[in-house]
Amino acid sequence: MKSYNITYAKGDINWADVPELNVDEWNWCDPCDISAKFQIVWNEDAISYHAVSAEKDILARFDAQNCDVWCDSCMEFFFRPDENDPRYLNFECNPNGALYTGIGTNMPDRVRLLAQDEKTEFSIKTGRTQDGWEIFLSVPSAFIRKFYPGYELKEGNVIYANCMKCGDDTAVPHFMSWNKYPEEPVTFHNSAAFGKMVLIK
Fold first, then answer.
1. The whole model's pTM is what?
2. What confidence tens digit (pLDDT) does each residue in 145-191 have?
3. CB under 8 Å to 117, separation ≥6 — which residues?
4. In the chain, where the domains are located
5. Dihedral of alpha carbons 190, 192, 195, 199, sign
6. Euclidean distance between the first and the last CA atom of the chain, given in angstroms as a whole number
7. Rounded CA gap, 75 and 201, in Å?
8. Quick count: other Cβ atoms within 10 Å of Cβ 150?
């Protein structure tokens, strides 16, 4: 199991100072020339991340909330906020900022979550880079508490999480992750493959 320290960032985030984690494990496909990296920070108000992908043939068809964004070029963050609760939240986003999110313990029992305005609630910003695209997204602690009452983001908290890059319908279908998934079942919805992340100051 890989581990990553989520650093504390209050106010404006200087992403140049935030450690990166590489999404470099290949699952159920042959490696190709696509790559992805995530940077994650926290404060009492939110967990925030910046993800960037180097990808030549970007696919971005979906614009609506809770569409099949994983079929487009997509970057994803799954995490269990409470290490004593088996449920995890998933955030999947394409280059248009279209978001798919849900909560559950696996694929069959997942419940899709709808925000009134997901781009505002999660501060979603996406853009094209010289060799691909990037996303900025924040998960407010108030949102987490809707499903984990009384939960607080604080130093020393441990979450279990994985970061993914995929694209089912892209020119080169790919399924990459920070922590490796087993051969079976063929799904990212398997929290046994999550790594350990610790909130530090």
1. 0.97
2. 999 999 999 999 999 999 999 999 999 999 999 999 999 999 999 99
3. none
4. 3-9+21-195
5. positive
6. 22
7. 26
8. 6
Strands 3-8 and 175-177: unpaired
What residues does 53 pair with on adjacent strands? 36, 133
Q: What is the dihedral of CA 94, 123, 139, 19, to 10 degrees?
A: 80
The one-letter code for the residue type at 71 is C
Tokens in use for 55? 């990808």
Six token digits for residue 82: 């409470």
Closest by Cα among 158, 5, 170 to 83: 158
Q: Is 196 exposed, middle or buried (0-12, 13-18, 19+ CB in 10 A)?
A: middle
User: Which structure tokens are listed for 38?
Assistant: 């995530």
Architecture of domain 3-9+21-195: Sandwich (2.60)
The closest alpha carbon to 40, from 61, 15, 10, belongs to: 15
How far is Cα 19 from Cα 183, in angstroms, rounded to an integer? 29
pLDDT tens digits for range 63-121: 999 999 999 999 999 999 998 999 999 999 999 999 999 999 999 999 999 888 899 99
Check if the beta carbon of residue 43 is closer than 8 Å to that of residue 49.
no
Q: How far apart, in Å, are the Cα atoms of 89 and each of 4, 17, 147, 159, 182?
A: 18, 26, 9, 11, 20
